[in-house]
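Sample entry (323 residues):
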Amino acid sequence: ITIPTTKIAPEVKVYNKDLETIDSYELTNEIPYNISSGGNQNLIFSLSEDNNEIKIFDKTQRKVTGNLQINFYGGNNNRSIYYDAYDDNIYFSDDRSVKKVGLDGSLKGTFEHLGYPGYDVSSTGNEYLYFANGLGVVKLRKSDMSVINSRRTVDITVDEGWAMGLKAVAMSGGEKIVVFNNSSVLVMDNNLEVLGYSVAGQDDKVYAKENLFLNLNSAVVDSGTQVQVSGGGFLPSEQLTIDFYNQKYLVEADLEGRFSKVLNAPELSNSNSRDRVVVQSENDNGMVVRSISEKTDIKVTGNDSNYTYSIGLEIKDAIVENN
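Predicted structure, serialized as tokens:
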């Protein structure tokens, strides 16, 4: 799972199935939603309308390796990118058209969509592409960007429906299209016929007031010193468990679902972690100096919500011994 986030420095974090951080990349965007792999296994795309560009970040080289100059039309909005492994093109939409663009920046095709805001594009990897432009959902043929079908969603369930988010899902009975339609969620078949929907309503359930996040006062600390971890996105007044270096700490979130806790960085002399790096040298007095560096995670879990988030920390230690 690749998710854009912010902490000490803006970055994209990669999670495993247990929502533990396994990697991160330095890549920024004023609209985090517009950072996406688009389904590419090695690349991350960052779409910036203000700069009329799409940056291509190579995860193997850990740097931006390409910069596509694109003429965007419209104001800043959440825009998704879909990468097609078969034709090696990317697809996205602005407020004028859906665009098919090669990784060299060449424009391969467009579809004009009435000037409504262009939001999400999605595909299951076949020859079709779906996109949402507020007014509804359109199904296109990738090869020539022609329309196969379309469906207005503004009045399917309640007034003021507005299709802003969309996801195509491959299933055994055919692909399904999930549409986030302002105050409702729709499920459509591949012919854009509505199979079901759910309308947002009021209930007594307690919800988090913001997305999960964690911060550290320093990303690198010396053993024996203190590090402060803070964060939010948990339930109001929820009991939280902090897992740090084989120790568990309990802390209570405030009414906003936020918390702060000071932790002690452990000594590394007896550590056998695979993430431990030791560099041995000799000082001017002939004594052996072992410089130890170890990367670890601080993981925070809500005891009621089971919401989990983690953040990386590097601990450093130095051990001086007689030669």
